[in-house]
Amino acid sequence: MQEFDVVIIGAGAAGLFCAGQAGQRGLKVLLMDHAEAVAEKIRISGGGRCNFTNRDLDPQAPHKHFVGQNPQFSRSALSRYTPADFIALVQKHGIPFHEKHKGQLFCDRSAEDLIAMLLAECEAGDVVHWQPCSVKNVAFLASKADESSAGSYQINTDRGPVQARSLVVATGGLSIPKIGATDFGYRLAQQFGIPLVERRPGLVPLTFDGAAWAPWAQLAGLALPVQISTGMQASPHAPPLRGSLPPEGAAFALGRPGGKRKAHMAFDEDLLFTHRGLSGPAVLQISSYWQEGQPLCINLAPTVDLPQALAQAKARSRKLSANELAQLMPSRLADAWAGHDADWQRPVNEAS
After folding, report:
1. Which mean pLDDT values do the consecutive 10-residue runs of the chain (352 residues) have?
2. Number of domains making up the chain
3. Do 174 and 121 belong together in one domain?
4. What residues contact residue 248 under an 8 Å CB cut-off, 6+ apart?
5. Containing domain of residue 90, as a range?
6. Residues 160 and 264 in one domain
7. How would DSSP label each residue in 43-56?
8. Is 292 among the domain residues?
9. What number of CA atoms fall less than 13 Å from residue 44's CA on the CB side?
């Protein structure tokens, strides 16, 4: 049986980085993954250019950026290895990058640059890499009563059994099964009696019933800056266009009245209409915080005091309300909105 100091299951971003760091610190490391390709999630992230860090994170209080029920858990690791440290590693490997939006850093060329960097770091640490290699089962071997040996893990794989003093599970979640995501990590946690929090999607788009969304599918591809928030409307202007749909769309609204009060969270980001619903950075960000039964508010004109702007238009214009609305947001959206409410199809000076 082959023996290692540490076995790392999962060759994604976390597993590759952990393996390289451990190997370069003198440990004998085995990295394994059941998938054919390494780091598939890196490869597809950021539109293929991988948004690999954010330079605006606060290194003195990094845990405040951690989404989870126990942010303090990440405080030590994020304080000891900061975004600046990772940027220095990227620069060491000569990878060109740029800041796209609000401190978000992306590769200039391709996410493949980052994958090559992480593999090179593993090579520098003499990491043994088995891929594809599936894990059949994991067992913990307790230390002997005479303390002649410490406890260790025995991992049975389709390349044979291995033993290690430490085991790192970096298999990720169930976000994208098509690229190899499984529930292996959850099952292993349950095997060892580790409690799990309720699983829910995060960084995902919002989809709607096909028939209900059909009138808005024509807007697919349209993007605009919005303010999106959980709970009550966050904008000081509080315009009447407070949702992603007009009033008659309430049957498939994003929250139910009467739900438990949740912490308020808001983002100023871009919203993208798709054939199936809403996506873009705004929706992906808020999806990590929104809970079923909680209202979700979308301000489609966050930089405008919409009631005041329309009141001024009423005093000076005879244009259709929809035409005035098109001065404040994309015309395709204004036309679609007006098409579902007769009041918006009247001249603005006749609006009540």
Report:
1. 96 97 98 95 92 89 83 89 95 97 93 98 98 96 64 95 97 84 94 90 87 92 95 48 30 34 78 95 91 89 90 90 90 90 84 74
2. 3
3. yes
4. 340, 341
5. 2-191
6. no
7. HHGGGGT-EEEETT
8. yes
9. 10
